## 1
Amino acid sequence: MLPALALLAASCFCAAGAPSGDTYTAAERRHWAFQPRAHPTSPSFVPQTDRQWVRTPVDAFILARLRKEGLKPASPASPRTLIRRVYFDLTGLPPPPEEVERFVQDRSQDAWPHLVERLLDSPEYAERWAQHWLDVVRFAESDGFEYDTHRSEAWRYRDYVIRSIREDKPYDQFVREQLAGDEIDPKNDEMLVAAGFHRLGPLRKNAGNQDAAYNRNEILVEMTNVIGSGLLGITIGCARCHDHKLDPIRQKDYYRIQAFFATTHQRDIPLSSPEQQAEWKKKTAAIEAELKSLRAKLKPFPAPDNEGLEKQIAEKEAELPPPLPVLQTVEDRPGEYIAVHVLARGDSAQPGEKVGMRPIGVLLPDDAPEWGDQIPSPRLALAKWITDRANPLTARVMVNRIWQNHFGTGIVSTPNDFGRMGSRPSHPELLDWLADQFVECGFRMKPLHRLILLSSTYQQDYIAQAPRDAMEKDPENKLLWRFPRRRLSAEELRDAMLATSGRLNPQRGGPSVIVPIEPALVKLIYNPAQWAVNPDPNQFNRRSIYVFHKRNLRLPLLEVFDSPDMQLSCPRREQSTHALQALELLNGEFSNAMARALAERVAREAGPRTDLQVDRAFRLALGRGPNAAEKQAALRYLADGGPLSEFALAIFLLNDFLYAN
């Protein structure tokens, strides 16, 4: 039982229905994730020999578990390793070589805390950590499925996330704004953009006759599933067709959550004048009429005459005016309320028992009543329950995501699944302690970052030749006896090439940039005219978070390095290794263009001496100078007439460039 949550349900709503009839066994309620936080204290006893290692309470928890298993932590990482690690960790960019040298030479005790604080205050930090959230909420700028229609205004939500992280907005407020910004303040554009959260999922659009009930249900499914995976860390989507096979989530639970969205409908608010809208409609209608005429002349395939017609159609489609700016949000329309029913096999054509709103039953007392069919501000009611301090899932889930993005793996290694099929916490007391700290610090992320980054655990070295006992007892490094090595994500890799070459455009915010890609790939798009490349080439060098993210067409470099398509919530980036990655780096247009730019920069900054060029290239790309063998090989290659651009390309293929630490 969770008295605080039960009290919330009782106090917020006076219109409660009859008891639901749901009961849960003691075993179902006993699962660790559904239990209240244990409010542990950090281990108080630390052996004299280890006291210097324990810098924050995080270290006390980690060390206690290591000692229990007969293991010891790795030695500290070098300053050169640390600054590269934390730069990529917090900003997603490599440190400038001059800054690396300053940090290496700074022997003061405050050097590391000052560096951490400065990076947390940087705008690049917000851009990097916004990407983590965008992964979770499956942000993209097209519908997906067959038509994959563009959402030209989705960038407003992306910028909202970046702003929120930059100002360290409390996470509970951040969640409430996204779930119910339009209900909180319907006249505030920021709140309306935040509520665009409900518009992020993929959307299937069918031509011809439309099944309104089916289409509406698919939208509600998208709204409901992300609440479970993204915010609560449980797979409630598995209960759409039947009671969850493994977790205590009833099919009724699924549709009761869905009921909070029964009056929610999409809303596009024009940001243009009536005159501009009228002109746009007139121009669009004229071109659409011409397109209709051209398409009517197309003959059944195959037909040689079609090629010329298809070219004319493509040219005419390119003349269509771009969509007028709108603010994409949602709104409640109580007058369009459609009752929510439990659907047999999730089929909208097989409605069963009608249900009202209510949170997940296992977190409420047995036979807790439903909250009713229609209540004021239903999504705000759901948001208050999710962000309640006593909710056992919300703080744990977010803390685990933050930990994962620092160490590569969460304390719970299945961040979207805290259920029985998910992994158990490697350090349950630490997870609850961090969740308590998160709540007590007002749900702010930056204090949590500091606790982690200032710890000895984070500042450990990566040991390539691991001790045998550590590999035998903990081969996956779940106990963190060394710092885990991390390859750069797809976006970090692209941004690192831009930064190293000196081509990175630091412009922030605004509409996403459509960059050039191979024509053969554009032809695969349902409507190639949608891929309207930005006319300003300087825009192509923006950070990857500002590059247009189309579900059915990812940039080749990003795709081969495991950038997700965002059809579903991405809880953790995969790290595959395969030949296509090497081929893309060696032959890709982007990597070769960046290699040429790096060569130009090196020649400009280092002058004509090849030894200075080699040193400058290494320091720009890797944050260090070349070792003796590297320098000898590089000088021999350049002396034999090897192009500086190909040497620069080889630098991009080094593991020390591809990995953050």
## 2
Amino acid sequence: MAVTDFLERGALINPDGLCVVMGEKRYTYRQMVGLMNRIANGLVSLGYGLNRNAAVLSDNHPEGYACSLGIMRSGMAYVPMDFRNSAEDNFRILDWGDAEVLFYGSRFHDQVLDFRDRLPKLQHLICLDHPLEDISGLMDWCSAFPDGSPKVEIPAGATSWLQTGSGTSGDFKMAMIPHRAYHSFTAYQSIWLADPQPVMLVAAPITHAGGGLSYRVIAAGGTLILMEKPDPQAVLKAIEELRITSLFLPPTVIYRLLDQPNVRDFDYRSLRCLAYSAAPMSVEKLRLALDVFGPVLAQGYGQTEALGIAHMTPEEHFIDGQVAPDSRLSACGRPALPFCRTVIMNDENEILPQGATGEICVRGDQVMAGYYKNPYATRKTIIDGWCHTGDVGFFDEEGYLHINDRKKDLIITGGFNVYPTEIEQAITSFEAVSDCAVIGVPDENWGEAVKAVVELAPGKTVTGPEIMARVKERLGSVKAPKSVDFITELPRSARGKVLKRALRERYWQGKTRKI
């Protein structure tokens, strides 16, 4: 069983239906399978297969998506590269990932020429758009190979993706994700995002969550509509005009949608699932999104190392026809699958009872095999078969999992443990606040003091004292920020996560933080 079986199932049930659409480009299932097989057969003819790696550097792009599938169908591991990365990050990914083949978009040509001489293992370059100098164009290259199924058997335990993590710690690790992990993740999605005839708008990068979430769609014979980037107005128009049924966006992008003055002017009745994940979502903004988009919000919790840990379906956002209370909405969902186990552990790796706070740990088929060429990091993360997520949380009395924060983001002030997430929830309850980050900064008396860094919504204002007073009223003086800084735009990773490490650096220069 391989990831590409999902496409082949879609072609079996809907061969002439639209598989991938981007602007004027349209691929039916029959055409997409044929292109995937040509790419795979081309790679096999070059001597590639299992235990070899190939990369794709591209924006959201139909042929780039076909190349990712062709790589996996040949038995090779797919190395996704986010088009928003710096050139040096792309070099590191190709170098550390031992990529021997690179498919890339023409706009990256100068970047590729700059680093190809520094990558002796990189033997074949293929441009997605058209031939460039001595570089073959994809369609010319693959036309020489048959469109029949390659004679390659792919074990479920073979690596499908070699994925660079989306964390914000600055560590460079690549997770080896076996094909069986995506089998589990697709089963997880079928429960989380029930949608029998999906038309999915892929506005987030297909090199990350957008790609993994696409497999549910193609397995059902649905349609993927690719968008170059999640421009708020373009997303809102596409939902209405293209009758989108499902969509995934990180919370930061949903906030930008909600900030649009005409957000209520569009028809969202086609939507069945608006999935949000990748970071905690403000409860206040979640309530607003439910009011604007309807009862379609669906939360997922997972990470690169463990695909699909918990989820909350659209129905679970309501109780007896009313929007659920904050105690439910602030959770990230219940454990997702019967063949995945999620527990809370203490620092001695002992499983804690319901209600106790500790590290979220998971085991099951959706867990990575380990970090590529990094046995030390693997041993620190996978202990006795349990994947240690680095997230701190607890299960409530209903069985919902709550995430307090990342272990490394814990603030210790005057001997008290303070988790930033609940403070951020209180701060984003202000209509004027678009987003915020709470960090610990050096303090001579308390060790660390709580600081809020706030990004305001366009045209809105709120003062630091007002923010501090509201948090103090809700959470008490220990958790109330001792200072508030305002910033035009919070630093974010290429995938939209706020880079608290970058915020902390300016305050901790010349000092050592123990966490």
## 3
Amino acid sequence: MKKKQKIMLIRILAAAALLIAWNISPLTGLLRLLCFAAVYLIIGYDILYKAGRGILRGKVFDENFLMAVATLGAFALAIYEKSGDYNEAIAVMLFYQIGELFQSLAVQKSRKNITELMDLRPDYANVESEGTLTRMDPEEIEVGTEIVVQPGEKIPIDGIVTEGTSALNTSALTGESMPREIAPGMEAVSGCINMTGLLKIRTTKPFEESAVSKILELVQDSGSRKSQSERFISRFAKVYTPVVCIAALALAVLPPVVRLLVGMGPEWSIWIYRALTFLVISCPCALVISIPLSFFAGIGGAGREGILVKGSNYLEQLAKLKTVVFDKTGTLTKGVFEVSNIHHNTIPDEQLIEYAALAECASSHPVGLSLLRAYGKEPDRNRVTDIREVSGKGILANVDGKEIAAGNGKLMNDLGIEWKDCHSTGTIIHLAIDGDYAGHIVVSDVEKPDSAQAIRELKELGIRKTVMLTGDVGKVAGKVAKDLSIDEVYCSLLPADKVGKVEELLGNGTLAFVGDGINDAPVLMRSDIGIAMGAMGSDAAIEAADVVLMDDSPMKMVKAVKISRKCIRIVYQNIIFALVIKFLCLILGAFGIANMWYAIFADVGVMVLAVLNAIRALKVHGL
């Protein structure tokens, strides 16, 4: 609890204790008035100050004005009637302050998630000089400087690991608890925590351009982009508050005047009391506080799950999503080649892979690298001699004294070797040993293990259409679309073609484009909602996208939609609940059925219940 909240709690407890004490003491007359007035000032001086300042600044009609007028009026009525009962005026202010404290604690709780993201910001960077480590401000570190990150420290600036191996805790960025292994030559992203070994990292960006700075800037700016619901409540409050003030004045004046005209007693005190009750009931705190809090909590909860939303307007749009358009490579597929099948082999699979990997051991081509990964060992280059690359066809090499040919059908034709066709989708590497066909290996960009589940769950959530856009050829794209049950697929597209295709799809409900954020910036910006996936450390993604998914799991897209819909449900619940109770109590107050105690429930009670409901937007982990 913060200092300001502690002071408020002390004021509440002191006012409550004094209120009880004065009620059981035999105080009368002026002394009783002064004692109760002191309690009123203890609990309400800040509200009176804010109301007075608002009047001086021309901002009269707010909740502080309503509370000040209503409670001072109740005090004045008690003095006029000489009843000595000042409890209602103090109780209204006391319970209002309890509600304000509760709301402050709720905001603090929701801010905690944002604060945890803010804790990503590193305090220092270690620079080694003459055998000793010097702590420097990360903003002073120049590009190309070698920094040292010890176990337990945050990586302060993006860079490339030059020395050391370790496991990185990326949970603050991605929401995932599984650590990531890192080794020399790999990219180290700022904000991650080094868990085990000492790392030396050569910085590749200045601090202000590093991933952690971009993310913090994104989170800090998210509050400036208001949703339609928030804008509606702001406009509503500006009109509603003056209207109820005028209505309360009319309630205090018109009925007594009418009664005078018809020859009856005016009963000024009764109607003024009803007008004051009307003012307390009318306070729009529940709406003004709970709606922004719901969105704030939703954005904070999403942030803890590795889903960064740039504003509540995008959270609201996510809830209305009808069409989801996916990029293929790196989004629905892993974006790296892997051995997916082996066919027609005359030798064991492992041996076929071994010969192919050894023949490709000097290759930097993605297909060759995939064979080396499938082999899983460091190739013994002493076993390989006379490597010859046949441009556009494959590799010839001598492995263990045997002539190995690894390549496409054209290479096999050139060598006069009869080969078997393959109906699988991907790159086919045929292998021959000493002129005899030994089988073929299928290398392809494999689908992510949870892509199909993500598409299925999106459809279960009511997404009407799923579309895939890719630069790949039709055969490859068609297979992925079929495997994942995607409704429409468009292939052989250039980046500009993707923008054109998205423009054709716009207009049939809210559309989101999901891409890897590196080469999809134009289409991310053109769609209703641009969603960058697997964007940890990607500047292009953070700049271009409206929603940033910090890891590469398509299921994060599903979670983003679920979070947004839960948040919007809570917003609508609070709007309907607050308005129904308010208007019902206003009618009861106008007819004298609801007194000040009903007013307290209508104001503070509704606000507390709405805030409690809003806090539920933080609970997103199990969605």
## 4
Amino acid sequence: MTPIERHQRIGMLQAQASTARNVRLLSLFEREPQRVHSFTLEAAGLCLDISRQRLSMAQRLALLDYAVAAGVPARRDALLAGAVVNPTEHRPAWHTALRAPAGAGQPAEVAECLQRMTRFAAAVRGGEWRGERGEVLSDVICVGIGGSHLGPQLASEALAAHAAGGPRLHFLSNVDPAAWQTLQAQLDPHRSLAIIASKSWRTLETARNMDAVVAWFEAAGISRPGLSRHLAGVTAAPALATASGIAAESLFPFWDWVGGRYSLWSAIGLPLMLAVGPAGFQSMLTGAHAMDRHFAQAPLGENAPVALALVAFWNRLLDPAATEVVAPYCEPLRRLPSYLQQLQMESNGKSVDETGHALDWHTAAVTWGAAGTDAQHSFFQALHQGTAAHPVEFVLALPDRPDPQRRDEALLANAIAQAQALMLGRSREAVEHALRAAGMSEAQAAQAASHRVHAGDRPSTTLLIGRLTPQTLGALIALYEHKTAVLAWLWGINPFDQWGVELGKQMAGPIETALRAAREGDAGAAGAIADPATRAWVERLGAALQADDLIRSAAAPRPGD
């Protein structure tokens, strides 16, 4: 499809969306008796219901027709085959190969790395791999940021109930010194293993945090050679990692055809394998592969990743200002919104198409959310009665075991009730009737009613994953990976590069140099910075740091005191 043809097709869909903005959701169910059945899909053990979206069956068919015209099937096949689908970096995005079964498309280098990870994880978990002083390694410090950290942290917290026998995981991503100060107070260096994860091995935050962790090990008396028992590395730049002191036996590769935010399935997932064991990690790969098979084989109209993408695409046409809310009604999945922020917004936050032409339509919506039922007592007020309608994705899981206080039933009931309330709302007539029934006079009820009216017609999706296990978690994450890619192809953009991440990091270097000089008393340190606002902030912060250093110096004890 040429850019002109895409523009014309999206323009026609925008015209259809304009007629749908004021359609009552309940009327769609009345006009389409088979709606619930037709809009509910099964995929790799997950159940997806998009029936509460402001999308008619006819409009869904039009979207499916557009998906075919946009080349979604061919692009899907190219992705799964390991073809070049990242044109700006001339690379495949072959993360699906990381979870392919042995002998069924799994590359030899992936199989070898998995075998090494398995041996290493078994040795650490079993106590054969110990620290320099012979201590069992009870804690793992996971040093990384972005894609090297969000996936493992989400998965390890989600699967905490499956982590018996594994070390405790701790995540260090923020370069703020307070993050490491807080964490190190909980740890014994002689019983700790640090896994440094960085695709390029040049990420500033990870490099600085690695320096701090290494200094902590050395301050505890761990020798330079002994550090090999306390450090492991995961990278696509093994030569740089080796030069940093990571021993070959604890260095695990992944490849430039694996994007950071799609890398959980690679050696980036080593912390998770340490926590849940090799069998648990393999089960997660199995669940993800099952979703890959569904994505590859299901017709577009029955394809869960395609359905999620079409809904997100449609909602951007309906209301470009709307955000995308994710509400997992499952406490172990509380980090799912943060994980999806990076996956969806870093992948699809683009304003030009694959050929570099500016887009005339909106791409990635802001993704945010929190776990229910906590979310109901924070931002759901705005979702129900605010001036904007923000589509919500409810993610549900069945409980591991019955709860004596029946909180499991309350949790699930609240999730379904929120979706119902968002759709149905409450009319002024219904509110006034309820107030009068509660004892208010007609005048009092009329005065109070406007504050209690809920507009309704707020769209939502409900996704049930069954019980939260390594396998269902793998399927869930793969579902969202494929949704993100399909959505990009509908917009005509590349979801596998992230040049917007680089600019601020490049600018930070000269600013840090100027800030350090200003802190050390160089009054003209910021003079080379052209931007007056940035220059003013370097001068202000440099002076503040200098004054703080002087106060600390004056307060420090002097020799002989």
